[in-house]
Structures are given as C-alpha cells and as structure tokens.
Amino acid sequence: MSSIYSDTVKNNTILALFIIGWSANETNMMDVHKEAEQFGDVIVISQPDSYRNLVIKVFSAMKYHQSFCKNVDYLFKVDHDVIFFPDHFFNLERKGYFHSTEAASYGNTWKKAVVERDPKNRWYTSYTQYPKDLYPTFTSGPAYILTKNAIPKLLDAAQYRNLVMVEDVFITGILASDTRVKRISYPNFFYKYPRITVEPKEIL
C-alpha cells in the first residue's frame, strides 16, 4: 500500500493504517498478513469484515490511538472510496480552521436525521438500541476528523450505551452528544467530482 502514499505520509507526518475485518477466505487473509508484514500498516479485528461492523473498526482505531499515539493531534476516519489530501488539511490547519485542543469532530454534519426502523435497511436501528425518533447532530461517515481530546471521552461514554451499528451516528452523534464533544461542520469538507463514463475505446 505504500505506493499510494503522499510524501506527507512517507515522511511520518501522518501514520496511515488500514482497519480490516476477519475473512473466512484463507487466501484473502494470507494476502492481508503479507501486507501487514511488509508495510506494518494493517490492523485486523476479530470480527467479520462487514458494513455493520464498521463501528467496531473505528473503535479499534480509537483504541489504537489511545494505546500507542495518544499525543497525536487528530484521528482521520476515511472510507475506502474516499480520497484524502493531507497537504490540503495541514494548509487549512495553519489558517486556523481546525483546533487540536478542542474535543471535537470535524466534517459534514447532519441534523435531525430520522432513525431508520426498517430491519431490511442497512442503517436499521432498533428501539432497544436507540428509542428516540431523531438522531442527535452527527458528522457524516465517509470521512471525518476526531481530535485527540475527543477520543477518550467517546470511548468512555461507549461503556454506558447500547451499541448502535450505524457508525457515524453512534460515535459522532450519540456519544458526542453524551460527552459534549463538539460537532463542527466544515463547508466543502467533501468535494464530489462529476461522474464520468468512458468507453473502452476512448482509453486506448
């Protein structure tokens, strides 16, 4: 994976880690372990790799932060289909857009989102898990930033809540609300490139 890293990552300004769930496919797991041995950039959790277990992956990243690098200012949660530009982030931080001393999550925030009650929906949440009809304000899941002072608060609060499998809602919404971790909306946090369809002959 090191071939995809920017110079910022290669120069150790940022540590990039891939959080991967367990797979029953032995070939896949062998490839994962080879990757881990070669680059040291993989954390494998003991749960199956699935969307519903994404929340466990993020908790694993937060626990890693607390165990091995808790003085690191920020933890970036980035989905596999999202491109993160670290140099752009550092430029914005120097301009004062982000503050590591705050207990906060940064990203695109959602307000008054309706709780999904359909068991067939991927975002299903039962009344036992969360009884209210609306979620608290949360930071949208494709990518968000947690500050170092937010992480221990969120981990502590999780001990007193039923687990909600919708990761961004649970971590940056419910737990953040319980602990008064700020959810700060940063305009244009995401830039969506227009979808382009290319015929094979156009590539040659």
TrEMBL record:
Superkingdom of origin: Eukaryota
GO BP: protein O-linked glycosylation
GO molecular function ontology, one term from the record: hexosyltransferase activity
Keyword Amino-acid biosynthesis belongs to the record: no
Membrane topology: Single-pass type II membrane protein
Pfam families in the record: Galactosyl_T
Compartments reported by the entry: Golgi apparatus membrane
Primary localization: Golgi
Alphabetic keyword roster: Glycosyltransferase, Golgi apparatus, Membrane, Signal-anchor, Transferase, Transmembrane, Transmembrane helix
Assigned EC number: 2.4.1.-
GO CC annotation, single: Golgi membrane
Similarity-based family: Belongs to the glycosyltransferase 31 family.
The name this protein goes by in its record: Hexosyltransferase
Source taxonomy: Eukaryota, Metazoa, Ecdysozoa, Nematoda, Chromadorea
